[in-house]
Amino acid sequence: MKVKIYGCRGSIPVSHTYCSRYGGNTSCMTVESEGKTLIFDAGSGLMVWEQEMKALYPSYPKNLPDPPKILISHLHLDHIIALGNFAPSWYKDSGMTLYTASRDERPLVNQIFGAFKPPYWPHDMSKMTGAKCVEIECGKQIQIDHFTVTPFLANHSDITMSYHITDGKKSVVHLLDSEINGMTTEMYDGLLNYCMNVDLIVFDAAYSDEDYPKHVGWGHSTVRQGVELALKTNPRAMIFAHLSQTYTDYELDTWAKHFGQAPDTYFLMARDNSELDL
Ligand SMILES: [Zn+2]
Ligand SMILES: [Zn+2]
User: Residue 107: which domain range?
Assistant: First the structure.
């Protein structure tokens, strides 16, 4: 199983020399196994995934052997911003499937593409797209290809999903946009259960420990909280992602000083276009 980070940032995409090493794209990662790929979130990093597909398949977005399957954790803009320009959103027969929770009475396609209509966007994408939109629920396991995915509720505003993903051999927990601090005991115990002995946790470390007190209740966590979770659940690896766009490469380099407190876990910072072979 391979995990690739296409967007390591949270909130808004940035492009500048101050972030040239870690990158400036917002949330998007892939999990690949046995020739099948799941995409998690449609932040600006999805545009880079699209460039890779264009290079591989001249017919893109038509006739793809493995059409995009995107699980959307929640509908904050940093997790959907690429959908408006993403070619499979426009092409009716792209075979794209989008998975997320339903939040209100509107059809799911209107919820997902709600930000992409006038006056915020030139076209009403919900009317143009051919994407199949599938409702998923926290606690209800789903099967996509040979992957088993279990969404569970994150501690974040709106309905936000974390995911436990397995291909039967390796397992990954996608835990972005979730605040460890403030979880109920029941929620935290559930989290421990999902994270126990997995191969990888992709962990929300939006803020430094120094800055976190100014952001309590904003729905994000820190490297130190990730290390504490690793000590309790013993994952083989933990990637820190959803890094606030305000941090420079040099500042992010210093976060590694908090690593090393969980001897059985390999810790690393997320960088755009970095891969981990599990
Ligand atoms: Zn976010
Ligand atoms: Zn969010």
Answer: 2-277
Residue 79 alpha carbon to ligand 2 centre in Å: 7
According to the model, what pLDDT value does residue 247 have? 97
User: What CATH number corresponds to the domain at position 10?
Assistant: 3.60.15.10
Spatial separation of the C-alpha atoms in residues 96 and 62, rounded to whole Å: 10
Ligand nearest to the CA of 81: 1
Q: What's the pLDDT score for residue 257?
A: 85
Question: Which ligand sits closest to the CA of 10?
Answer: 1
Distance 62 CA to ligand 2 centre (A): 31
Predicted structure pTM score:
0.97
What mean pLDDT is predicted for residues 20-34?
Answer: 98
Q: How far does residue 78's CA lie from ligand 1's centre (Å)?
A: 5
Q: Looking at the CA of 12, which ligand is closest?
A: 1
How far, in Å, is the centroid of ligand 2 from the Cα of 215? Answer: 13
pLDDT digits (tens, 9 = 90+) for 115-147: 999 999 999 999 999 999 999 999 999 999 999
Nearest by Cα to 262 from 203, 216, 206:
203
Give the number of the ligand closest to the Cα of residue 204: 1
- CA 193 to ligand 1 center in whole angstroms: 24
What is the structure's pLDDT at 262? Answer: 85
3-state secondary structure 65-132: CCCCEEECCCCCHHHCHHHHCCHHHHCCCCCCEEEECCCCCCCHHHHHCCCCCCCCCCCCHHHHCCCE
When divided into structural domains, the chain yields a total of 1
- At 209 the pLDDT is 93
16 CA distance to ligand 2 centroid (A)? 23
Check residue 261 and give its pLDDT.
Answer: 77
pLDDT of residue 28: 98
SS3 of 186, please?
Answer: helix
